[in-house]
Design a protein that fits this description.
Helix content is 17%, strand content 38%. A 5-stranded mixed barrel has the order 2-3-4-5-6. It has a 4-stranded antiparallel beta sheet with strand order 8-9-7-10, with helices on one face. The radius of gyration is 17 Å and the shape is globular. The termini are far apart.
Length: 168
């Protein structure tokens, strides 16, 4: 996967690995998460997918990376936030959505929210752009949690997201 910047500079797709601290005995269920990114400088990448488990980063963020002895890229420093929020949703198998990750994505599509589901963990990672109706997205999240459709967590949110939550 290669792309082009407007200046004609070729960007290579790379995998960036993030160490994940454990919150409890079994979460997150992995110790390392790999995200796709595009190179934008010698040691700087822009994340191109929504993180499943990494906290504090979102798709589009700039990250400084360091290569280990095997050439594997590891996240070293978060440089710039994209403005996107990352929200993780786990639809309940016993709930009205019957665990459907696609129905979660469909519920947020009218807000311009995109995302990705992963069957192995029954999880949907949502990318909420900064120009989305944040209060509307939050209303749907809260209603789904209240009505037994899903549980959710905020992986990376903005001050605007927090302000919208306070104004409810």
């Amino acid at each position: 996967m290669n792309g082009e910047f407007g200046s004609g500079v070729t960007m290579a797709a790379v995998e960036v690995h993030f160490d994940l601290p454990r919150v409890g005995d079994d979460w997150p269920p992995v110790e390392v998460e790999s995200l796709w990114a595009e190179t934008v400088g010698d040691d700087v990448v822009r994340l191109t997918n929504v993180p499943w488990f990494v906290r504090g980063v979102a798709s589009g963020d700039l990250v400084r990376v360091e290569a280990d002895a095997d050439g594997v890229l590891w996240a070293a420093e978060h440089l710039e936030w994209s403005g996107n929020c990352t929200i993780r949703v786990v639809p309940f198998r016993s709930g009205p959505l019957h665990g459907s990750r696609q129905r979660v994505l469909d519920a947020f599509e009218p807000f311009g929210v995109t995302g990705e589901g992963i069957q192995q963990y029954g999880l949907v990672a949502l990318e909420v752009p900064p120009d989305a109706d944040l209060a509307g997205v939050q209303r749907v999240l809260r209603a789904g949690a209240r009505d037994g459709w899903w549980d959710y967590e905020e992986g990376c949110v903005s001050d605007e997201w927090t302000a919208a939550a306070r104004s409810r």
